[in-house]
Write a structure and sequence with these properties.
heterotrimer; A mainly alpha (349); B alpha/beta (505); C mainly alpha (313); B: 505 residues; alpha/beta; Rossmann fold; 3 domains; 7-stranded mixed beta sheet; 17 helices; globular; C: 313 residues; mainly alpha; ABC transporter involved in vitamin B12 uptake, BtuC
Chain lengths: 349, 505, 313
């Protein structure tokens, strides 16, 4: 038996790969649910109805999908250029705390139409800086950015904790560690009243389309892909390696930082250290499920959000730990890796 | 051959997908015999040897050593039966010592302690017997290529190999190192070892082998005693038809286009001098690893010189860049197609325009229509077969990939063409096509800088020849005076430091 | 207490060994994988799972040593998964490793919550007690400083010595190193690089599992989510710092633990004057610093992260 590279990648297989991966992941989770003593099909039905069955569930799913789209795009653009940005979690938090820092201080009193774009920019820039650090260390010292960006995630969360217990602590929060609020003027308009759904969703979708266009049509898109596929040949063709990687890092870190900014300004209004239930890490899964395609990220983020929201209500109903959602989503990353593999290779005899 | 064969391959067949790499090949090897396996790239030589050594499992056929059949696909069994292989890309670990490299896999993995002392003694005694001197404690990465090959041979001998297979053993050696190697092989054959060496070089086959088996298209097409054949006959058998490489006519050199004076690139090139004139080819000959990569990169705009002067069209270039070189009209053929020349997973059109994207973009957006049209012109004009502008470049054969690379450079009529190892790994048909293109460009007035390890190529294409040795360039010799012997001496670094090459030959 | 007097107390040296133990296990585990050419970023999740399953085994009436064995066995299992994906299929070692971390940690939390549905304070077990070594433990100062540890700590140090011996003095270790440097070369000499990589990744992952279990069975006495706290990533950095040598890995882990123990005591000394978060950042910043220091000096196994397929170069 040997593994052989396919000359052509059948399009049907490429499109089917994520579906197969998700079905496989769900099947394995089904076994876990059964072991936990719950009816499997009923559990899956409850996940779907939990995520889509009610107005609240439906809007909640979309609200959750919003930051996932952005962190998913952050991972997708980086991975395509082989920049292993595993630091989206840290970039998310730094973007969030930066927004909290400026909204009520430097930008205080600005009208919303200026304040909101400016605050979003600040969040994105904070995220950029947070990725330029590990990338700079890779370019300067040759250190694998995976380990450094992972380690920096912990540093950033501690920094945020220091801020919200120190200079940015909300004096009106009865001693709870949370940041000063961004204020009503900085809050993103709601899409549907009396829900948590805000226009961040539209921003995320628009950015996904924009990123797709950038990657497919622009010089930057072609150069960043070349750098990812074969850096030696890209350099021979005169593609500026460091410059391209820095641009990619700005885009990727900026998107993750933006995710943090939008989450603060769209949902909570202030920063705590549990602002993100691992959006940065889940973004990696979203990107892989989308096979790094920016438009695929939209769908993959919806799937991931569905699992999280649906599993919450299913868990309450059946007494199953809602961690089953994390298990399923993590599994789908592994199964997706395998199913992408079989779009590129086949097994002979 | 009267003796009982030590090695017998019978009916070996192996297919990869739809290509038949080996088609019912049968070969015998007698004790003490030196057999050459001659064939072009892709003739199936390496596949055959990989099967013999157990790296691949054949679809059909058997390997027998001393009449005992080897189990297929088991390198260990082959080693135990006394088959040793010297790989073309050495299978050594740079960070381990010579002794560690030699000892790997020679003891039971579950033994509680390596018998280092005994191993060292055995290694030294073998080295002594065959005159292969090494320091057992040297780090392999610190050794020269010739020394590394010695370690590779010692590794096989240490395993008590009686049948030694050498895959393109001279590919990385100087002529002198190669002669030493063949002398060593003779000693081994006399002491009873049987040898097979794989080659596509007619000279060394005629000089070193007792018998030649010619492979073509996965089949044995002929078998000759070296005493009863000629280079001409072997050449025709190997290629299967008469492929005439194009012949260079006399050059009409124009003005100097590119000139280097006492130029350094770090410590990799020191004080080199050369000039390339319009309508003329300057050949740089040398054994790989002597600085030709850096030289190619220098004129391709990838590295900067650290001292001396580089003049382009009479003007000094202080800082170069890829874009500056391309805009100045320099066409660049890199030495490694797959690593530097193309990006396999990108489309042909993308590879056609990547190095000149500024010509095919507006406002930061790629003009895909124009880029596809450009790729189409290259495909038609340079006879690139096996792909359309939108197909993935990976699917092209080596020859067609090289035509694509030549095409994207020559389509715009460059004033200078830098061709590094332009025919490495190509078959005769593709070599002839590439040579024709280079000669056409030269005829049209392009100045060509040809960097090559292939003596025949340089002799047939270049008007003037310089040798590169350890980062230094010899003075040029006119092609008319260059023969294999003179160039061999030059490649070994044998030229007067500040004078002309001796004309006494 | 003055800032330097901290070093004069026996307590800090005892703490150093305690803090270092999980790092020694984890670093050695990652080191063995990488020596064979496989980066195992599953470490963080495998340590989490080891912590959970070790605790669970003991909580369900198992022996403490049974807990360690269970952690090792499940670690090896995750190693098998990692090797199947990265060695057999040749998938990206980065992404697969992260996937395993995400999978193993979420599975740990799931199982833990299944067993312990909801509790304000997590249930505890009776952890390892310090091993009394006749005479040595009674020595003044040194007894408290060095010989007042639980058995797994001594085991970690012993394993470092064993790993160094096996890697550099036995045919097996040579085969592992050869595979990490040039798997084609290993194959050419009759060593099966795929088998070696599977073996190394499974053994290495087993050690990672034990390192995690030390947290619940010796350092603490209960399991709670996120308790591994990036220790796995620190181990990955320590491997580079150690230049892929077990002896230096031991030293690196101890040095690292010394800083960590010192900052913990410094926190107590300096109290409220400096935000405690700054101290907590120290281990992570220290790891990054170690990477920078060693970046250009370390001799990386040449085939690290390069998938091996027979007959493909």
């Amino acid at each position: 038996m040997r593994i052989e590279r396919r000359a052509h990648r059948p399009l049907a297989l490429v499109l089917l790969a994520p579906l197969i991966a998700i079905v496989a992941a769900l099947a394995i989770s089904g076994v876990l649910i059964a072991i936990a003593g719950a009816p499997v099909l009923e559990a899956f039905r409850l996940i779907v109805t939990g995520a889509f069955g009610t107005r609240l569930g439906f809007t909640e799913t979309l609200t959750r999908a919003t930051p996932l789209m952005l962190t998913g795009l952050a991972a997708a653009v980086a991975f395509r250029a082989r920049v292993w940005n595993i630091g989206a979690e840290g970039q998310f938090y730094l973007g969030a705390i930066a927004v909290a820092a400026v909204c009520a201080t430097v930008f205080s009193g600005w009208p919303p139409y200026l304040l909101i774009p400016a605050a979003l920019m600040v969040g994105a820039i904070a995220g950029m800086i947070m990725l330029l650090v590990p990338l700079g260390m890779r370019l300067r010292f040759g250190i694998d950015e995976v380990v450094t960006s992972l380690l920096l995630n912990f540093v950033v969360v501690l920094f945020v904790s220091m801020m919200i217990e120190g200079p940015l602590k909300d004096p009106l929060a009865f001693g709870w560690p949370q940041s000063i609020p961004v204020g009503p003027d900085a809050m993103l308009p709601k899409l549907i009243d009396r829900t948590r759904l805000h226009i961040g969703l539209l921003i995320a979708v628009a950015i996904a389309v924009l990123v797709y266009f950038l990657q497919a049509r622009s010089v930057f898109g072609m150069q960043s892909r070349a750098v990812g596929l074969n850096p030696t040949a890209a350099v021979f063709a005169g593609v500026p390696l460091a410059k391209t990687l820095i641009k990619v890092a700005c885009l990727s870190g900026g998107l993750a930082g933006l995710a943090g900014a939008i989450e603060v300004m769209g949902v909570k209004g202030y920063v705590t250290t549990d602002l993100s239930p691992g959006y940065g890490y889940s973004g990696i899964i979203v990107a892989m499920l989308a096979n790094l395609h920016p438009l695929g990220v939209i769908v993959a983020a919806l799937f991931t959000a569905t699992m999280f929201v649906g599993a919450d209500s299913m868990g309450r109903a059946l007494g199953i730990p809602s961690y089953i959602a994390d298990v399923t989503v993590a599994l789908s990353l592994l199964t997706m890796l395998v199913s992408i593999f079989f779009t590129q290779y086949r097994i002979r005899r | 051959m009267t003796a009982v064969p030590v090695l017998r391959l019978t009916g070996i067949t192996k297919t990869f997908g739809t290509t038949i790499a080996n088609d019912a090949i049968s070969i015998d090897l007698a004790p003490g015999e030196v057999l050459a396996l001659l064939g072009e790239n892709g003739a199936g030589k390496t596949t055959l040897m990989s099967i013999l050594f157990g790296h691949y499992t054949p679809d059909a056929g058997t390997v027998e050593v001393d009449g005992v059949q080897l189990p297929p696909g088991k390198p260990r069994a082959a080693i135990r039966a006394g088959v040793g292989m010297v790989h073309q890309h050495f299978s050594l670990a740079d960070n381990l010592t010579v002794l560690e490299n030699v000892m790997t896999g020679t003891e039971s993995l579950w033994q509680l302690k390596s018998s280092t002392g005994a191993a060292r003694a055995k290694l030294l005694s073998i080295a002594e017997r065959f005159g292969l001197k090494v320091d057992p404690d040297a780090r392999v990465g610190d050794l020269s290529v010739g020394e590394q090959q010695r370690v590779e041979i010692l590794k096989a001998l240490y395993n008590d190999a009686r049948i030694l297979i050498l895959d393109e053993p001279t590919a990385v050696l100087t002529n002198i190192e190669a002669e030493t190697l063949f002398a060593t092989l003779r000693v081994m054959a006399q002491s009873g070892l049987s040898l097979i060496f794989i080659s596509h070089k007619l000279n060394e086959v005629m000089a070193a082998a007792d018998r030649v088996v010619v492979l073509r298209g996965g089949k044995v097409v002929a078998e000759r005693l070296t005493g009863a054949t000629s280079k001409a006959e072997l050449a025709e058998l190997m290629v299967g038809r008469r492929v005439a490489r194009p012949v260079r006519e006399a050059a009409v050199p124009g003005p100097v286009l590119l000139q280097a004076s006492n130029l350094d690139v770090g410590r990799r090139l020191s004080s080199i001098n050369f000039e390339v004139r319009a309508g003329e080819t300057l050949g740089i000959i040398g054994v790989s690893g002597n600085g030709q990569t850096t030289l190619g990169h220098l004129v391709s705009g990838l590295v900067q010189h650290s001292a001396g002067e580089l003049q382009l069209f009479g003007e000094a270039m202080d800082r170069t860049s890829v874009r500056a070189m391309i805009e100045a009209g320099i066409g660049r053929v890199p030495e490694d197609r797959n690593a530097e020349g193309v990006i396999g997973d990108m489309a042909i059109w993308e590879n056609a325009v990547l190095e000149r994207l500024w010509q095919f973009s507006r406002n930061g957006l790629v003009d895909r229509g124009a880029a596809r049209a450009f790729a189409g012109e290259i495909i038609d004009g340079f006879d690139v077969r096996g792909g359309a502008p939108d197909s993935r470049t990976r699917l092209l054969s080596g020859g067609n990939m090289q035509k694509l690379i030549l095409g994207r450079n020559l389509q715009n009529r460059p004033r200078i063409l830098v061709a590094a190892q332009p025919t490495r790994g190509l078959d005769e048909g593709a070599i002839a096509a590439v040579h024709t293109r280079i000669l056409d460009a030269r005829r049209a007035g392009t100045g060509v800088l040809l960097i090559s390890e292939d003596l025949d190529e340089v002799i047939s294409l270049a008007d003037r020849i310089q040798a590169i040795v350890k980062g230094r360039l010899s003075p040029p010799v006119p092609a008319e005076q260059a023969d294999a012997r003179l160039l061999g001496l030059m490649m070994a670094g044998d030229w007067p430091q500040d004078g002309k090459i001796a004309h006494a030959h | 207490m003055e800032l330097l007097e901290i070093f004069a107390s026996a307590g800090i040296w005892g703490a150093v060994l305690r803090i270092a133990t999980p790092l020694i296990f984890g670093t050695l585990g990652a080191l063995i994988c990488e020596r064979a050419g496989v980066l195992n970023l599953g470490i963080e999740g495998i340590m989490t799972f080891g912590a959970m399953i070790g605790w669970l085994t003991v909580y369900n009436g198992g022996d403490l040593w049974m807990g360690l064995v269970a952690a090792a066995a499940f670690g090896a299992l995750f190693g098998l998964l990692h090797a199947s994906m990265t060695v057999t299929l040749g998938l990206s070692q980065h992404v697969t490793g992260l996937g395993i971390t995400l999978f193993a940690s979420s599975l740990s939390y799931f199982i833990f919550r299944l067993v312990v549905p909801l509790a304000s304070s997590p249930p505890t077990i009776e952890p390892f007690q310090p091993l009394v070594i006749p005479y040595l433990s009674d020595l003044p100062f040194l007894g408290d400083a060095l010989f007042n540890q639980t058995a797994p700590t001594y085991l970690a140090i012993a394993i470092a010595a064993i790993a160094a011996y096996v890697l550099f003095r036995t045919p097996l270790g040579l085969a592992v190193r050869m595979t990490g440097e040039n798997p084609h070369g290993a194959e050419a000499q009759g060593v099966n690089p795929i088998a070696v990589r599977f073996g190394a990744v499974m053994v290495g992952s087993a050690l990672m599992g034990v390192g995690g279990a030390f947290l619940t069975l010796s350092a603490f006495n209960s399991f709670f989510p996120t308790m591994v706290q990036g220790r796995g990533w620190v181990c990955i950095a320590l491997v580079v710092f150690a230049s892929w040598r077990p002896g230096r890995a031991l030293l690196g882990a101890l040095l690292f633990a010394l800083f960590d123990a010192y900052q913990l005591r410094l926190q107590a000394v300096l109290g409220k004057a400096v935000p405690y978060q700054l101290f907590l950042m120290v281990p992570y910043l220290l790891s990054i610093f170690a990477l920078i220091v060693m970046a250009r000096r370390a001799r990386v196994p040449k085939a690290l992260m390069q998938p091996y397929r027979r007959g493909e170069r």
